[in-house]
Every structure is written in C-alpha cells, then in structure tokens.
Amino acid sequence: MLRAGLKPLLLTCLLLGWSSSSMARNMELPLASVYAAIAPLGSDEPLFSQRADHVVPIASLTKLMTALVILESGLPLDETLEIGRISNTFGKNSPSRLRPGTRVNRLDLMRMSLMSSENLATYTLAANYPGGVPAFVSAMNATAALLGMSQTRFTDPTGLSPDNISTARDLLILTAAVYQYPVIRDLSVQGQADMHFRSPVYSLAYTNTNPLTRNENWNVLLSKTGYLSEAGRCLIMVAEIQGQPVAMVLLDSEGLRTPIGDVGRINRWLRNQPPGEVPVAAAEYARSRIQAMR
What residues sit in the active site (predicted)? Predict the structure, then answer.
C-alpha cells in the first residue's frame, strides 16, 4: 500500500537548496542533451530547462521509481529472492551475469539495480512483489500520480520498454522524492561492489554506470543512468555544487560519456564560469533529434 507520507516528504524537500531567482546565470548553457531540467533539489522552478515538458522514453531512469515502490511497500530488505528470467525484454538485448536460481536479498538486488542498472535484478524485485509484475507496475503508476507526475507512465519495472515515458520536469519531482530515502541515495552512488553469492557459490564485481561516483572531485548524492536507442543516453544526478544540492535531469544524448560532459558544463555554468562547447558529433545528434520532432 502506498504511504500518504510521500507528498509531505516532497514538500519538505522543496525547502532545500537555492532559490532559482538567486542563481540566475548570465551565460548561455550549451548542452548535448535534447531535453533537460536543472533545479535546486526539490524546487519546481528550474534554473535551466529545455524542452522539459516533452514526453519521451526514459529507459533505466525507471529504476528509481522501482526502488521507491519497493521501499514504500515495506517488504523486508533482508529477505532472499530467487533469480529467474525476464518474461519480456521488449526486443532488447538484456544480458545478465546473474545465474538463474541464485538467491539474493532485496537490498543487494536494489544495489545492483541502482548502481549498475542490472535488469534481471530489477525484474526479480518486481516479480516478487505481491501480485507480481502487473501489480508492481500498477503501484509505479499510482506512485507517479500521487507525486503529481502527470506526464509519466510505466509499463515495465526495468526500463527496457520504450513505453516507459516521462518529462524532464516530472523527473525532477521523482528525484526529490527518492532523495528522501538514504538507502536509495547510498546504493545509487556506490562506486563499485563485489557481490558474493552462496546459493550457488560464485562472485561478481559491479561498477557504477556513472563514473563521477568514483571521482573524488565530485560529491554525487544521487545518480541513475539510462539508455535505449529510443531514449538516447539519459542521466538523473544530484550533486553538491557550491555547498548546495542541485538536481539535474538530462535526456537523450549520443555517446556513453556525453551526459557526463553536460554535467561538467552545468557545474561550470552554475559557478559563473564559461561552460564550454558541445562536441560536434553530439551537437549534430541533438540537431537531428530536434529536426525529427518537426
């Protein structure tokens, strides 16, 4: 059952961070991402946005909502679940190093899901929800509605479906909501993890899909990456910049590290430094995606 406390938590979050008016920038901000929203954490007044109300696929950014529904359910995080197989990958290639039959507790499944975007771990969480995957997806959509994410819809828990859609503005709301949960924050920014399984016995090493979580020059407070061909490269990240938490939603760019380049430009822009230019190939990709909308 969904807790009524979600909205008060979000209202509390709105008190954090800078005011948008106090952080007005005097320089242009070139980004490779086609859709973007940047705001003091919890604010509904972005410091910067572009096409923030366009509804687009969000790929594995979905997994933040999956984690939120799991925590809201109150299901025990130390309960061990059996790894099975994903029933529908929506035509996507979704390899996993997890062996079917492996038993893993919910906390470690969330760890692999958030830090390394492990699809089978994520699916296992949903499959073991009361009522299975259909009930879990219904809970995702109910939570989105409760939060006021009016342009958001989920059809699967992993993000493999291109029909999981939202806007950059809606995702700022989700970012503020999940930030209230220390376990989501901590797991999402864990740089790497060695997972040791007992049944059967084997080990796997996982690395965070956001390299900035392992960069000592950044204080990353929340992170989730995503990719589908329909969605491009996506990133939700909260980072401390000039002593304050800033939420960044970046959707649809080309190139594995392109969102990271955008984050660097945002960081410099917020510090009133020249943000730098977007690489030519990334800019061409963005132009082609924008032209395709017309």
Answer: 60, 63, 117
Mean pLDDT value of segment 268-289:
95
**Pairwise CA distance, residues 218 & 275, whole Å:** 17
On whether the CB atoms of residues 27 and 270 are closer than 8 A, the answer is no
Please check whether residue 193 is in contact with residue 206, taking contact to mean a CB–CB distance below 8 angstroms.
Answer: yes
What would the pLDDT profile of 21-33 be if each residue is shown by its tens digit?
444 456 799 999 9
* Residues designated as active site: 60, 63, 117
Answer for the pair 188, 115: CB distance below 8 angstroms, yes or no: yes
pTM value is: 0.93
Q: Across-strand partners of 103?
A: 82
Structure tokens at 200: 């059967």
* Alpha-carbon distances of 150 from 46, 65, 142, 154, 173, rounded to whole Å: 18, 14, 11, 12, 10
* 92 has binding-site annotation: no
Distance CA 193, CA 111 (A): 9
The pLDDT score that the predictor gives to residue 113 is 98
Domains and CATH numbers, the chain: 6-86+95-293 (3.40.710.10)
Sequence-distant (6+) residues with CB within 8 A of 251 are 33, 34, 35, 36, 56, 58, 168, 171, 231, 232, 234
Phi, psi of 292, rounded to the nearest 5 degrees = -70, -20
Half-sphere exposure of 62 (CA within 13 A, CB side): 32
Strand order in the sheet with 48-50: 48-50, 35-40, 244-253, 232-241, 220-228
Residue of 193, 192, 127, 183 lying closest to 158 (CA atoms): 127
